[in-house]
């Protein structure tokens, strides 16, 4: 008669399986994140193609960094729609203009992009901001709405003085033109990052960020004005500590002058 496994043998098997699982879990986790990073990179590539299509329709100009009447400048570079309660109206800004053709609920046919999901990074799932602002359904709700928080995305876009004229800076080498911006070699759109504090702290979730490890970004997917895309590694968090919010103040603008030839 064949004997079954003894309790000790079963415990050994369970222990071996547990050890193998613990060894393989980080591998599977990295594989999933690499897949999400690839999707994110493709999103930016599509936004780059859409930007060039837009520029062809508008005499080489980039999407406006404010409303068409140019009476508003966004403080947040991860907004694509913003509302001014004092003026009682709102409008698309920056890459938001690439949504031409879509209705406020996200339906319709886009003129420049084939899917609204190109504005959504699948890696942005562990952010403090995620539950209340960055779900795809919430992004749809806030397009063309009077919500004062505007429509925000997990990507940041370059509306620094290098690319656009501003109320505080009348000169700009880019002057809002895609060919000038491409020659400068600057970043157009990249993974957004908004840390809870600077310098960044391990284990403290940021308000907004993609491709995180221990709550800190290990790098950034970047779209340049010439349409090229690139993963910029940041294992030592130099970029994260330099330009945390990616806004247009000079002290936080270094990220936006990073060019394709540099690894930072």
Description:
- The protein is an alpha+beta fold and 264 residues long.
- It has one domain.
- The chain contains five helices and eleven strands.
- It has helices at residues 7-57, 130-134, 136-141, 178-184, 238-242; strands spanning 79-84, 89-92, 151-152, 155-157, 187-191, 193-194, 208-209, 212-213, 216-217, 219-224, 229-233.
- A four-stranded antiparallel β-sheet has the order 4-5-10-11, with helices on one face. Strands 2-1-3 form a three-stranded antiparallel β-sheet. It has a two-stranded antiparallel sheet with strand order 6-7.
- The radius of gyration is 22 Å and the shape is elongated.
- The termini are far apart.
- The model has no long low-confidence stretch (mean pLDDT 78).
Key attributes of the depicted protein:
alpha+beta; 5 helices; 4-stranded antiparallel sheet; single chain
Please give the structural blueprint.
Blueprint (H helix, E strand, L loop, with lengths): L6 H51 L21 E6 L4 E4 L37 H5 L1 H6 L9 E2 L2 E3 L20 H7 L2 E5 L1 E2 L13 E2 L2 E2 L2 E2 L1 E6 L4 E5 L4 H5 L22
Antiparallel strand pairs: 1-2, 1-3, 4-5, 5-10, 6-7, 8-9, 10-11
Short description, anyone?
Helices cover 28% and strands 15% of the residues. By secondary structure, the chain is α+β, with helices and mostly antiparallel strands. A hairpin with a 2-residue loop joins strand 8 (212-213) and strand 9 (216-217).
């Amino acid at each position: 008669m064949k004997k079954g496994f003894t309790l000790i043998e079963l415990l050994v098997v369970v222990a071996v399986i547990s050890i193998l699982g613990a060894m393989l879990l980080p591998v599977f986790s990295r594989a999933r994140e690499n897949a999400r990073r690839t999707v994110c990179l493709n999103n930016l590539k599509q936004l780059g193609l859409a930007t060039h299509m837009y520029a062809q329709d508008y005499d080489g100009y980039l999407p406006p960094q404010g409303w068409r009447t140019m009476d508003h400048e966004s403080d947040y570079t991860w907004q694509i729609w913003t509302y001014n309660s004092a003026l009682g109206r709102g409008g698309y800004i920056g890459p938001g203009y690439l949504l031409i053709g879509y209705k406020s609920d996200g339906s319709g046919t886009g003129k420049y992009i084939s899917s609204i999901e190109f504005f959504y990074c699948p890696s942005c799932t562990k952010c403090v901001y995620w539950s209340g602002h960055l779900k795809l359904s919430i992004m749809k709700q806030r397009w063309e709405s009077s919500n004062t928080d505007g429509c925000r995305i997990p990507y940041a876009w370059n509306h620094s003085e290098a690319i656009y004229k501003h109320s505080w800076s009348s000169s700009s080498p880019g002057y809002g033109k895609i060919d000038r911006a491409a020659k400068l070699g600057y970043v157009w759109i990249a993974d957004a990052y908004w840390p809870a504090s600077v310098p960044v702290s391990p284990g403290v979730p940021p308000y907004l960020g993609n491709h995180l490890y221990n709550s800190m970004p290990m790098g950034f997917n970047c779209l340049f004005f010439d349409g090229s895309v690139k993963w910029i590694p940041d294992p030592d968090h130099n970029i994260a500590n330099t330009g945390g919010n990616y806004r247009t103040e000079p002290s936080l603008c270094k990220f936006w002058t990073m060019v394709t030839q540099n690894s930072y």
